[in-house]
Amino acid sequence: MSSAPDLLRLVNQVLANKRRPAVARLPSETRLREDLGFDSLDLAELTVRIEEAHGVDVFEKGVLRTAGEIEARLGRAACADARQSED
Amino acid sequence: MQDLFFHDPARGERISYADLWSEVSAPEVAQAPLVRPGTAGEAVRAIAKAVLLRRALTLFDSDFSDAESAALGGTAAALAARGHGRGVPERDLAAALEAARREPGFRLTLFTSGTTGRPKKVTHDLAGLTRMLRVSSRHVASVWGLAYNPTHIAGVQVVLQALFNRNPLVHLFQAAPERVVEWVREAGVTHLSATPSFYRLLLPQATVLGSVRAVTLGGERAGAGLLAELAKLFPAARIRNLYASTEAGTLFEAEGEWFVVPEALRDRVRIEEGGLTVHRSLLGTLDGGEDGGEWFATGDLVERASGEPLRFRVLGREQEGVSVGGHKVNPAEVEEVLTRCPGVREARVFGRANSVLGQILCAEVVAGAGFAEAEARAWLAERLQPVKVPRVFKVVPAIRRTRTGKVARGAP
């Protein structure tokens, strides 16, 4: 499963709502706050959009800082789903 | 740093107690009675000056739109007005602070989301704002992190606590987590008071902040998980929950999630149908309040543990209010503005649980001809504070209503 193009789309949706230009790429080291200028309301909006698309609350266990951390969290959640979660 | 009153590291702004004193100790001092501050420094300075000068101050939220502000009496002309009057008569700051606590004159008007329509005014005197204030030699070395908006009551209370003890305040509100950690360390912050959302954004954290001795949470419900994480981040701190509202100021505190009503307030606090109700004598003066009854429903749903003394914990808000990061938003106010937007036939605004901010604001719209989401967002952004603009829009065929015909508030 590749979440990268989808995360890019969701991030760009939040940017569009802030009337900021879209980004063409989302390297994993992209920092949500510093590089994209997200504030806490934007982060909250992003969680809702990711949750709607993937059914995962990525910030449930604390706020993630970079695009790569979100992808890792989404990847882990997908694996856990596949294994039907042991814990 | 000695004599520092306020430091905003993001803007490089500093105000010393000497600066403050020189501004208020002239024979005649001009001070605006209505202020919509552009920066936290401006807000903090206005509050401190009004306290020392013993004058009335109305503080508009810095992010009010011009239209919101004007509708509440803060027109451009009113905000430009300067009140003239005598400067502080005492010989020095210590004497002036002492006199300010005894003498009347200071009143602070703030704005709160009502349960209907527009925000309403709440006016507090110093006694109501300083119910939990502690002034003593034990506090001389305290350094406060200002992690609340200083135009809101919780921020005002932090400013007053620092001012009366002549402690420095370090502005941390809305700073990125990395900066908060850096500045807390740099300034040796000992006291932090903030919403659960503020602390949630700091986590997870690999480091510890050992200088902090007191951590206070308020404005939203804090779960046990968050409290446990905070104990790791602030190993030297006593962690407390505060129960406070814009209408009443701070009323109760708790070590865990159970609040105990102190003896002095026992006759003025009740639980009615699961909702916390407080006597009007505990409130500031409400302007245009919707009911003039003797008891005021806080809108918080609580669970009672014992009757004498009354112990309770907060379960949540009654449906009307949405709390976005501790900032109370009235969905009816947003709906009212949204339904006036061209292309919107009907609208429903509601809160939805969110791991970052507790709740996030969402809107459902029945679209008419010419509806465009981007235009609806722009329409709202022009007229309302950013926190009141729904972050997620959905176009729906019809709005869900309750049996009495009211818009249903819960998330679908």
Structure, described:
The complex is a heterodimer of chains A (87) and B (412). Chain A is globular. In chain A, α1 (4-17) packs across α2. Chain A is 52% helix and 0% strand. With 87 residues, chain A is an all-alpha fold. The mean pLDDT of chain A is 83. Chain A has a single domain (5-86), classed as ACP-like (Non-ribosomal Peptide Synthetase Peptidyl Carrier Protein, Chain A, Orthogonal Bundle), CATH 1.10.1200.10. Chain A is built from three helices and no strands. The longest helix of chain A is centred in the C-terminal third of the chain and has 16 residues, at 67-82. With 412 residues, chain B is an alpha/beta fold. Chain B folds into three domains: 4-240, Rossmann fold (3-Layer(aba) Sandwich), CATH 3.40.50.12780; 258-317, no CATH class; 321-395, GMP Synthetase, Chain A, domain 3, CATH 3.30.300.30. An eight-stranded mixed beta sheet of chain B has the order 2-1-10-9-11-12-13-14, sandwiched between helices. Chain B has a five-stranded mixed beta sheet with strand order 4-5-7-8-18. In chain B, β12, α10 (224-233) and β13 form a beta-alpha-beta unit. Chain B is globular, with a radius of gyration of 22 Å. The mean pLDDT of chain B is 88. At the A-B interface, α2 of A face α9 of B.
